[in-house]
């Protein structure tokens, strides 16, 4: 598999000229995108469980030596560090990654992106039978991810503010200690808690729509977040390359 | 016998203060006044040590505090009460045996305090006026209660003058003003929604006054005393935080100093009032204790002669030391505030789980519909050719 260059097809030599509808194995998601994706998934899972426990300690310990809450908080803080690192990596890749992971593909700055959003909404609401294909994210998914990145940033800011409320370095203190003077610490806590549920709702929809699109397009979408490769019809790849970035 | 009695009376000439003889400031040192009252050197040093500890100063400062208090002249203090419940005065007076607080009462020359002063009516108001004129820039003012600003401040008047006009006159001429309790700090209960009288705290009512805010409902008298001792010892007010509260009292989270903290870390929680955990003194986190959200020194200084404080007594903290706690720390028995627009019975967790369940349900329905659509396609998508 590795011997094929991007855009090259396994059948290309034997079946030239092959139809433009034949899928081409394309490297879409680069390694940092996949790594940050999975670390974000794992850390959000751990953070949600430990965070919910910190909100409502549903296991009441009887041991004098287990220090359940202290350990849960410790895991929460470690997972938060992993989450922040993965988030920073993804933010960095917005600027150095390929066209499909660039920040430009997320902001709806072109008319075709707004059109694409309308088409996706029409597809999801059964007004349109067929999907419009995309090599990277479709426009609707892109703005949803942008919203989720904003929520993640809010979680990081509120989380670090809650962290500096009890400890933290001079740098974190300098960055975040002014916030409880503007928004009360209780409301920050409420925000930190409520945003968690948007992640739950998002994950359900995200996995479902990935499976749905993968099924409809037969393009290996689900596998692509593990391998990085999608199977894209050649004409779509060529059209995508022509698009103004 | 009879003659003797007459003679005794004759010896005691009625004392009428002359014009040149002002009662303020009493021309004696604080320590001298204490000695006259029979306070021993030992108790005086105990007081100095307690104050040094409350101020979070190293033990070597005890000597400095003691020598400063020995030499200092008794400063004049006036205590103003506006929209209040007198709870902060009560906290100061709630001293069951002679200790720190009695010393505090002797520390200053209290010239005006509505609920404890002997004088009344014009006499009392004259005393206040005299302090403002003759001790201008030297006396300390303590304000208790909120100041109403709505309708020209008519909702609180003392001796025919509005609270705001009294506060402006007294606090601008004072060396420093201490806002005692939540109401004087930002309006407290009086300013809680819907705040019909337009109540505000002293800093907002009189912006030009130099104010130290002592939050709490009530404020802790030990902290009031410590602020005064700091002022007398070092000639300046203690280090303040962003709300002008002294850092020694409001610099640390209650949760981090709490005697029940080990139970929190171990995961041992009171589940309902009076259960096994409650009787064993476990952590009140699940009962809505706001200790983790509030900065105050209650666990170390405590109330009522340091006998107890709410969490020690088995009730969660309500966060009274925090800014606007009636609004921000309620409901007092829940972990988180209510989500705006959802009523009091719906918690954030219920809303979140509801939204998640709704999305999950919608996804299942959408999935079934999509499968049906796939079946009904007349022409297969191009990939399937």
DSSP strand (E) fraction of chain A?
Answer: under 5%
CATH H level, superfamily name of chain A: Transmembrane di-heme cytochromes, Chain C
Q: Classify the oligomer.
A: heterodimer
Structural class of chain B: alpha/beta
With strands numbered from the N-terminus, the spatial order across the biggest sheet of chain B is 2-1-3-7-9
**Which descriptor suits the 3D outline of chain B?**
elongated
Count of DSSP E strands of chain A? 2
CATH topology of the largest domain in chain B: Rossmann fold
The description of the largest β-sheet of chain A is:
2 strands, antiparallel
Report on the structure:
The complex is a heterodimer of chains A (about 240) and B (about 375). Chain A is mostly helical and about 240 residues long. Chain A has a single domain, classed as Up-down Bundle (Fumarate Reductase Cytochrome B subunit), CATH 1.20.950. Chain A contains nine helices and two strands, in the order βααααααααβα. Chain A has helices spanning about 30-55, 70-95, 110-125, 140-165, 170-175, 180, 185-215, 220-225, 235-240; strands spanning about 25, 230-235. In chain A, α1 (about 30-55) runs antiparallel to α2 (about 70-95) and α4 packs antiparallel against α7. The longest helix of chain A has about 35 residues, at about 185-215. The mean pLDDT of chain A is about 85. Chain B is of the alpha/beta class. Chain B folds into three domains: about 20-250, Rossmann fold (3-Layer(aba) Sandwich); about 255-330, Cytochrome-c3 hydrogenase, C-terminal domain (Cytochrome-c3 Hydrogenase, Chain A, domain 2, Irregular); about 350-375. Helix content of chain B is about 40%, strand content about 10%. Chain B has 19 helices and nine strands. Chain B has a five-stranded parallel β-sheet with strand order 2-1-3-7-9, with helices on both faces. A two-stranded antiparallel ribbon of chain B has the order 4-8. In chain B, α3 crosses α4 (about 60-70) and α4 packs across α12 (about 220-235).
């Amino acid at each position: 598999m590795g011997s094929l260059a991007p855009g090259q097809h396994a059948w290309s030599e034997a079946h030239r000229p092959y139809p433009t509808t034949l899928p081409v194995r394309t490297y879409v998601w680069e390694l940092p995108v996949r790594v940050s994706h999975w670390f974000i998934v794992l850390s959000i899972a751990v953070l949600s469980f430990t965070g919910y426990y910190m909100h409502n300690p549903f296991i009441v310990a009887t041991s004098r030596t287990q220090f359940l809450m202290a350990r849960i908080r410790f895991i929460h803080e470690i997972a938060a560090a992993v989450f922040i690192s993965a988030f920073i990596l993804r933010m960095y890749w917005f600027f150095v990654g390929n066209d499909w992971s660039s920040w430009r593909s997320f902001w709806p700055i072109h008319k075709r992106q707004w059109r694409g959003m309308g088409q996706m909404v029409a597809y999801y609401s059964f007004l349109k039978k067929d999907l419009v294909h995309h090599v990277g994210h479709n426009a609707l998914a892109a703005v949803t991810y942008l919203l989720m990145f904003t929520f993640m940033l809010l979680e990081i800011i509120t989380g670090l503010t809650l962290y500096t409320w009890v400890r933290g370095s001079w740098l974190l203190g300098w960055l975040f200690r002014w916030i409880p003077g503007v928004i009360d610490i209780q409301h920050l806590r409420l925000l930190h808690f409520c945003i968690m549920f948007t992640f739950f709702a998002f994950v359900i929809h995200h996995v479902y729509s990935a499976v749905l699109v993968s099924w409809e397009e037969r393009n290996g979408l689900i596998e692509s977040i593990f391998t990085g490769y999608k199977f894209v019809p050649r004409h779509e790849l060529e059209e995508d390359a022509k698009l103004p970035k | 016998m009879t003659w003797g009695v007459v003679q005794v009376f004759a010896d005691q000439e009625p004392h009428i203060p002359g014009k040149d003889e002002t009662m303020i400031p009493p021309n004696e040192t604080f320590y001298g006044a204490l000695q006259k009252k029979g306070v021993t050197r030992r108790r005086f040093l105990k007081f100095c040590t307690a104050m040094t500890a409350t101020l979070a100063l190293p033990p070597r400062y005890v000597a400095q505090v003691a020598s400063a208090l020995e030499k200092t002249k008794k400063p004049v203090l006036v205590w103003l009460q506006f929209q209040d419940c007198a709870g902060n005065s009560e906290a100061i007076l709630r001293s069951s045996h002679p200790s720190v607080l009695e010393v505090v009462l002797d520390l200053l020359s209290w010239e005006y305090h509505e609920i404890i002063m002997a004088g009344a009516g014009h006499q009392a108001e004259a005393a206040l006026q005299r302090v403002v004129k003759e001790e201008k820039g030297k006396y300390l003012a303590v304000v208790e209660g909120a100041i109403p600003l709505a309708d020209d401040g008519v909702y609180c008047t003392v001796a025919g003058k509005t609270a705001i006009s009294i506060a402006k006159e007294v606090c601008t001429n004072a060396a420093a003003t201490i806002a005692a309790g939540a109401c004087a700090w930002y309006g407290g209960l009086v300013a809680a929604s819907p705040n019909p009288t337009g109540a505000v705290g002293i800093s907002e009512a009189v912006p030009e006054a130099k104010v130290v805010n002592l939050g709490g409902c009530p404020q802790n008298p030990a902290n009031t005393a410590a602020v005064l001792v700091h002022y007398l010892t070092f000639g300046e007010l203690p280090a303040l935080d962003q709300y002008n509260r002294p850092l020694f009292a409001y610099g640390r989270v209650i949760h981090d100093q709490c005697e029940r903290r080990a139970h929190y870390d171990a995961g041992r929680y009171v589940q309902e009032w009076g259960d096994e955990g409650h009787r064993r003194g476990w952590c009140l986190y699940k009962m809505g204790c706001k200790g983790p959200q509030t900065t105050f020194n209650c666990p170390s200084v405590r109330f009522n002669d340091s006998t107890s404080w709410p969490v020690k007594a088995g009730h969660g903290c309500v966060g009274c030391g925090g800014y606007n706690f009636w609004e921000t720390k309620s409901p007092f028995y829940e972990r988180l505030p209510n989500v705006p627009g959802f009523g009091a019975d719906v918690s954030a967790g219920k809303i979140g789980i509801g939204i998640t369940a709704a999305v999950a349900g919608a996804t299942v329905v959408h999935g079934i519909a999509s499968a049906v659509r796939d079946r009904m396609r007349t022409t297969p998508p191009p990939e399937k050719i």
